[in-house]
Amino acid sequence: MSDIREASQVAFQEIRQPCVALSNIVFSKTSPLDPRSKELSDAVSQVYTSFAQVVSSLEKQHGEVYLTTTLADYVFVPLVDLFKAPQIGDRTLEKLLKILATLIRCCWRIAGSLPSQLGTNLLSLLSFLIGGPPSGQTRQKPSRSNEVIEADLECLKELFISIRTQTSAGIPNLLEDASTLPSFGYTVSVILDSLRDCQDVKVQIRALEALDVICDLFPKGDMLSMILPGCMSTFVKVVAQRNGVKVHYTALEAIIRLVTKILVFTCSDNNLGAFVKDFNLNSLEDLKDSSSELLKNHDTIEFIPEEKDHRTKEWLVKTSSQIDVAFNTILKLRNHDKQIVVEAIVELCGTLMARCHYSLNSLIPKLLDTLGKIYSKDEGNDYKTLETVVKTPNLEGFVLKRLDQWIGSLSAAFLFTDQERTYGIIKLISFACEIIKSWALTGTTSKTSITVLMQRLLITIQESLSNLVSRKKDSKPSITSIPQSIGTDMLITTQGYDGGDIDDISHQKPLFDGLLDSKCEDGLYLLLNLVTQLDPTLKVPEPTISESQSSKPVLLWMMRGLLCGAQIKPNALQDENWMFNDDEENHDVLVQERVYDLLEASGSLLSECLTEEASDSVARAQVASLKSIADACQYLGPDFQYELIDYLYPVVDCLTSPIEHVRYEAQRTTFQIAKICYDGSVKSLIFENYDYLIDSLSLNLTGHSITPRTPIVLMVLIKFGGKEILYQLSDVISTMFALLDMYHGYAVLCESFFSVFHEFVESVEKSYLEDYEFVKPDAEGDILRPWGMKTFDDLVKFLTHERDIPEMNDLTLEEVLDKPDSDDDDEEEEENTAESSPPQSEETTPWQSPIPKQLYFKIQQIWNYADRLSTHSSLRLRVLILTIMTRIVRLLSSSPHDFLPNLASSWHLVSSFILDVDKAKGTTPDPRLVILASDLGCQFLHYGGGFLTHRMLQFWSGLKTKQWFLDGTRALRHPKAHSAMDLYLQAMVAVSRFLFCSIQNLGVQIPENVAYEMIHMACIWVEKDPEKYGYFADTATLVQLENTTAIE
């Protein structure tokens, strides 16, 4: 406010009456002063309230307010007697101190307004009120409330600010006067005691604010150096949070920033003078003699005036050792959960390294460690730790030395049970590398030193990880598929392909899972990226034959990490100061060389795994190789097509792995190749390379190299190759037929081959019969048009047709008997072998099936092999065979001329699986086979029609005599008495539907009495709608009525 006198008048008008009332009480001649009276307390409160309100009002109107010293005297006179009064209450004393703080701030702040004697008296008064008399080590502190202590410290802060204002105006510093030094020293001790002993955060903040202003009063640091030991001792005790007392984070932040200021003022290279540049304290081992003197509890601080600065080399040695010990506690705050505390630590480290580089160089390693550990946190970059170090000059030697030490501790770090400690070492090394990388951009580091350190780092990582892997006992990993279930393996193998998106694959697993946690592995990988950014020429040895299986994945993984870093072009590539400067073309050549080295090594390792049994080490090798191939594809782009022929089959083979994370990594790699080289189409990838894949498969379909995965690879090719690949599989399937001839006793081999056949049949059906419509035989018209006759004219033509009847005279009796009869179709058809070929009449008969003739007869061969192996001892194989044959019926029926012989030759499968007794069961057939055989029989009847009438009637004659069937009919009548999951009940339902299917498809060709038996015994219990029985609808209705009557 420009007019101090005017403001003082306004303030006087507001506080005059309360001050008069207070004076009347204090200076009353009628009654003695009672310090604890309510009347006095209310009067003081009224003065404080009025004074605070008027000052606040003036500040809102005019900003900072200054009042005359006359007004201060008017208010302060009655306060003096009250401060002298014994046993004054804490509430009254608090208000008095707040009034005093306002007086100091508004009346004794401007230059020349604070007399030296008044300042000295106030200093003594304020220290006495909360610290008691300065009686040395045995002084008794008065018991004061936190509010009183806070108000007292606020007064001291305001007093120090006023002294600073006087000093700034050229008035001699009151605190440097010899007569004031004892009081000042005692005041500092009282402030430190309040900071240490009081846990109230407001008190701690006020104490720290007062100390902060004191630092500003002695920027040269000579006086501060005398209170430095006591301050550091108190700060350590507060930070240590002893007795379980937690210090508020705002107080901790203020302590750290105050430590920074004090040390800069007392120990900065500029303030200490020229001698410090020759002072290099690289070790504290020489200071053991002074260790007993460290961090004594300085209850009082005494200032001894000297003509010259006492800060000598000896003083600095001792002080450095004290600070080093104190920092063991203070720097632990780097782990604090509050960001402002950590930011203060970062500022402390950076400031000391820059401004106390020579004087406190013994602390620099510790400060670097602290910054590195902060950097190791995930949020480390938020604190700008790297910028702090990079901007600090003359740290190259320290950083390289720490890096060397951290690399030396890395081997032991891999053995830590606490992976967080391991990660901490990794991040410390990364921190140093990032610093060097930033320096390298300005050409300030030595290339030779860095190359040596980086090479040592690579060797350490390689040896440590290889030892870690080799020590782990190899075991079989968890298999996600059902043992010996090729169909389930195929389902697991191909799931997730339809999306065609790499991001859909989320089941990835760390390469060193179980050895290192994912955070450590990722940290090491990023560290390898940094290595090649520092020196693009560095490499690791490629996997060789002499390398152990466990070390090869490690080397591959390291090569990937180095490649990833080498691809990053530094911003200073064109900077002449760049230590590894080279033109862009040479940079690309180096990277491309790494890519081809990585491809060669990964392809070799993946090929070695083709015939290996699944284990942890094999899985690790496969995953490392697959990731390497994906990375190489990413770098080479569309040019990877030229290299694909050497790596595609091993990748596809990994798609069939029983180990989940290997399979998903193979999917990721497959999608990567398809996305970059084939517009994201996996089908295009498979189809355009099917010739190579099929050749590789053929080579692997031999006795010594075939594995359980080989058939699944073939299934994958069929699934994604489409109809175009079907023709190319002829030789492969023929090879499989040959293997079945030799190894049909091996159930697993047969099952895997028939799973391939099932996939082949399904692909043919989808490719050629998806929109094909069959003409269903007319059950009721079949009897009117035997042998293909449809009209009466056809019948006349048949009767008048002359047949070539051989003359008996030209034949012997044996020849006549050996000549097959036209009705012996069944026997002739059953002699049909796997190598069946189209009849000669095909030369004149046009091909009717939409399926190409070559594929049709290949499917016919599959049918014949299935028929031959239907009696195999493996139940799983028989189930698979029945499933395949059920699907094949529709395909074969597309060529009626070739279909009926196969139908006749395989009818025995239906009858035998349903009628014959299962040896394992004793008296009944296996219900699982009965269900599938019934489904197959339905297909036979649906596509064969009346051709199977005679066989069906024979089947019924045998079925109705079987005891298990008779028992099953009773179960059909009372289904609630049986579990819905009862296999025998399900089998009976399937057989009944088979009988119902025969009635639907054969119609009038079934005798009336036979139809009645079928409906009465079985059919009516699974299909109750008479209209669905066609020609026998009336019979079904009759049976229903009979059953209803019987129930009633």
Automatic annotation (TrEMBL):
Disordered: annotated segments:
810-848
Q: Which residues form the TTI1 N-terminal TPR domain?
A: 12-371
Q: Known InterPro entries for this protein?
A: ARM-like (IPR011989), ARM-type_fold (IPR016024), TELO2-interacting_protein_1 (IPR052587), TPR_TTI1_2nd_yeast (IPR059075), TPR_TTI1_N (IPR057566), TTI1_rpt (IPR049362)
The highest taxon in the source lineage is: Eukaryota
GO CC, any one term: cytoplasm
Ranges for domain TEL2-interacting protein 1 second TPR come to: 546-646
- Ranges of biased composition (kind: Polar residues): 836-848
Q: Where is the composition biased (Acidic residues)?
A: 821-833
Fetch the PANTHER family from UniProt.
Answer: TEL2 INTERACTING PROTEIN 1 TTI1 FAMILY MEMBER (PTHR18460), TELO2-INTERACTING PROTEIN 1 HOMOLOG (PTHR18460:SF3)
Q: What is this protein called?
A: TEL2-interacting protein 1
Organism classification? Eukaryota, Fungi, Dikarya, Ascomycota, Saccharomycotina
